[in-house]
Known about the structure:
This protein has about 425 residues and is an alpha/beta fold. The chain folds into 2 domains: about 5-230, Rossmann fold (3-Layer(aba) Sandwich), CATH 3.40.50; about 250-415, Four-carbon acid sugar kinase, nucleotide binding domain (Molybdenum Cofactor Biosythetic Enzyme, Chain A), CATH 3.40.980.20. About 40% of the residues lie in helices and about 20% in strands. It contains 15 helices and 18 strands. The chain has helices at about 10-25, 55-70, 90-105, 140-145, 150-155, 170-175, 175-185, 200-210, 225-230, 260-270, 280-285, 290-305, 325-335, 350-360, 400-415, and strands spanning about 5-10, 30-35, 45-50, 75-80, 110-115, 120-125, 125-130, 135, 165, 190-195, 215-220, 250-255, 275-280, 310, 345, 360-370, 375-380, 385-390. Strands 9-10-5-11-4-1-3-2-16-17-18-15-12-14-13 form a 15-stranded mixed sheet, sandwiched between helices. A 3-stranded antiparallel sheet has the order 6-7-8, with no helix packed on it.
Amino acid sequence: MSTRWLILADDLTGAADCAIAFARRGLASAVSWGERLDAAAWPEVFSYDANSRGMTAGRAALTHGAALEQLFGEGRVLFKKIDSTLRGQPAAETAATLAFLKVRSGRAFGIFAPAFPTTGRTTVDGHIHVNGRPLEEAEVWQRDHSYPSADLLEVLASADIATEHVPLAVIRAGGDALRAALNVIAARGEIVAVCDAETDDDLHRIAEASLPVSAGTFFIGSAGLAHALAASMPGEAMEPPRFAPSTQGALMVVGSLAVASRTGARKLVAGGGIVHVPVEPATLLGAPEGRVALGRQVVHLLDAGEDVLVEILMNEEPDMSLGPQLVEGLAEALKPAASRMSAFAATGGETASALLSSFGVNGIRLIDEIEPGVALGLTLGGLEIPVVTKAGAFGDEDSLSRIAGRLRAIRSKGTILKEGIPA
């Protein structure tokens, strides 16, 4: 019997890009949010979006504690997914997880490795770097950060978490030496081992030295560590889902402020083959007539077989506090499109979960990964269509074009897997 996993994330795209690591290894994997699914329906890998990215530390901790009480069961290994650039409240959520496991298992030990090297996120000397530079210099940190610095020991100390740093030299010793080092740290009590990692090989060493886990041991990291752990799991090839080709268009939505998403949208539109529908914030925040008109416009285009890119327009200094209201307004406007699209894609976890919920979707069956951090699956609930989720800051200026091309091919070929689909 293969290991069963519970992934607890703070947003939808993170929940998906961790679960897809296991799905690609042939393990049945799904993401859900909102109302918890009945335990009998959970696949081998169940990833839950607690939607806590925008919460205060106290509320995020309570939310995670409550989710663990309902979701964590015997025989599950816990993966606490955090943002690789420390957005949200990873320290408070980790503290809540330690407290829960101490009560449930009598011990609690966290193995913390947030690096995601294939997207440029690395950890050196206990400090996160993005593309070789300190995280504090990155665009994502300038726009949104929760802590004074990206020093992981200081971040965790802010929530009174005991830590010990595991440097690259120890990581690269690997095998029994690394396993022994982790065991020594774990013997100190409720503590988190903060692991450096510059490469995928570093993460694989951490995974190999950590598995199988003892009761009370859990992992804290991003999709980089999830892929390393999944690589050690036995699995079988899944039967690819098939469905009738569609004449209706695909709907893509850009709600993220990240440069990668905005430049990608411009390049996608410039390449043709998609109708750009820019949306002013006033349309989403103002009178309902504007949202009704937007929904009708999008439905008309989808029915005509046009692929549609809806983009919330932002100025150079957007009011971040309006984010939830904008997403709520967009979900209201686009709800009529649910039954009229052949596929759906969104950048930004908050945007994706709000829109999918408005469409009657309560989960995603993960199938494939278009590129690192870009998950492809089938919606669950009141609608079954191909869906792509992408963290706003992941990818490059061509990512949205690759997503659009893949969805176009799926629509014409009737298969969600890449085999038989031209690149």
